[in-house]
Amino acid sequence: MKILDYVLLALVIVGAINWGLIGFLQFDLVQMLFGDMTILTRIVYAIVGLSGLYAISYYGRIRSSNN
Asked: How would DSSP label each residue in the chain?
């Protein structure tokens, strides 16, 4: 499970960097690499989104480890 946590955290970081690039520079790295809303681009966005949802569970684990 720890490996999955690291992989998904890396994907969340990639997503955050991409959003930062979009916000600051109007540059979408995923779109540049995989095309304008191709199926591959949509898969990447979906996987990053699911990783973000999974990362919500980190709050519960942090809270339980502090007790």
From this structure: -HHHHHHHHHHHHHHHHHHHHHHHH---HHHHHH-SS-HHHHHHHHHHHHHHHHHTHHHHHHHHHT-
User: What is the reported pLDDT for 2?
Assistant: 87
Residue type, 23: G
Contacts 24+ apart (CB under 8 A), 15-22: 15/48, 15/49, 15/51, 15/52, 18/48
* Gap between the terminal Cα atoms of the chain: 21
Residue type, 8: L
At 21-64, the pLDDT tens digits run 999 999 999 999 999 999 999 999 999 999 999 999 988 887 78
